[in-house]
Amino acid sequence: MSIEIRKVGVIGAGQMGGGIAQVAAASGYDVALNDISEERINAGLATINGNLSRQVSKGHLTEEDREKILSRIAPAVTYEHFHDSDIVIEAAVENEEIKRKIFQALCPALKPSAIIGTNTSSISVTRLASTTDRPEQFIGIHFMNPVPVMQLVEVIRGIATSEESYQATRELVERLGKSITVAEDFPGFIVNRILLPMINEAIYTLYEGVGSVESIDTAMRLGANHPMGPLQLADFIGLDTCLSIMQVLYEGLADSKYRPCPLLVKYVEAGWLGRKTRRGFYDYRGEKPVPTR
Ligand SMILES: NC(=O)c1ccc[n+]([C@@H]2O[C@H](COP(=O)([O-])OP(=O)(O)OC[C@H]3O[C@@H](n4cnc5c(N)ncnc54)[C@H](O)[C@@H]3O)[C@@H](O)[C@H]2O)c1
Fold this sequence. Notes:
By secondary structure, this protein is an alpha/beta fold. The chain has two domains: 7-184, 3-Layer(aba) Sandwich (Rossmann fold), CATH 3.40.50; 192-291, Orthogonal Bundle (N-(1-d-carboxylethyl)-l-norvaline Dehydrogenase, domain 2), CATH 1.10.1040. Helices cover 44% and strands 14% of the residues. The chain contains eleven helices and ten strands. The protein has helices at 15-26, 38-57, 63-71, 96-106, 125-129, 163-175, 191-207, 213-223, 230-237, 239-253, 262-269; strands spanning 7-11, 30-34, 73-75, 87-90, 115-118, 138-143, 152-157, 179-183, 282-283, 290-291. The chain has an eight-stranded mixed β-sheet. A two-stranded antiparallel sheet has the order 9-10. Nicotinamide-adenine-dinucleotide (NAD) is lined by residues 11-17, 34-36, 40, 91-94, 98, 102, 119-121, 142-145, 237-238, 241, 276. This is 3-hydroxybutyryl-CoA dehydrogenase. InterPro entries: 3-OHacyl-CoA_DH, 3-OHacyl-CoA_DH_CS, 3-OHacyl-CoA_DH_NAD-bd, 3HC_DH_C, 6-PGluconate_DH-like_C_sf, 6PGD_dom2, NAD(P)-bd_dom_sf. Residues 188-284 form the 3-hydroxyacyl-CoA dehydrogenase C-terminal domain. Belongs to the 3-hydroxyacyl-CoA dehydrogenase family.
């Protein structure tokens, strides 16, 4: 039996959830967007509006299309708004306990055929699925940041994920104009298993005084041809998310080579989480980003 997706729910209106809602609405889906409060949802909608307005001013989108896309995204203050969603994609913070609580509260509000997707960067899809009433209809849909720009979506099947759920997810991702890579359900999947240890090593390089923020980023941009330096990228991802992923790798793979750098922990404890808090390895509060070390 094939599952057709028409209505998409999104939980978490931050960097990723907002991006997923925007891309889904731009592809013609009706979207319901949830977060912990009406203010957070409105902040997410304002960011989406800002992104779309920028596209209008660059001539990439018409004013009419901007309005149409926005009108397809409805705020969902409670999970009851997801009663007719064919899929709900969870993109709340990278914290297993919070995600578990979300799924437990979400399931009773969904129709039986609805699929649940998680945008987790690293947490076991199988384990998250086990907290729901529908492990067969649970799947990892890992979008990249920023969602409207990045081409890849990593799809992760849990041990119980059905072929129907996988095919429906595949069709959705293709209709969003994205490319798929399939990863097995291991900590960090493919992208973050490789990317985050590199970022963590860059932070150790800074911590041990091998180089400054600027010299490390310049080294990797010009020496390894990376489009942005690893510390700039860490700020972009969010240092809290980077730390959570390293903790999942460290605990899940039980190997000391994944130990999160103490300097990363310190930045997170300071609330310097990168671009989203306007301070991380760079300070974004002025006209130009200034390295903080
Ligand atoms: N930042 C990245 O580069 C990136 C890339 C791929 C995947 N992810 C994953 O996407 C998810 C979200 O990351 P982000 O970068 O958007 O974080 P973010 O901090 O920008 O946004 C998280 C949002 O979740 C909301 N939230 C927290 N608890 C919630 C709850 N109980 N119910 C509903 N909303 C809740 C917060 O209010 C916030 O708006 C994480 O699982 C992260 O690992 C992040």
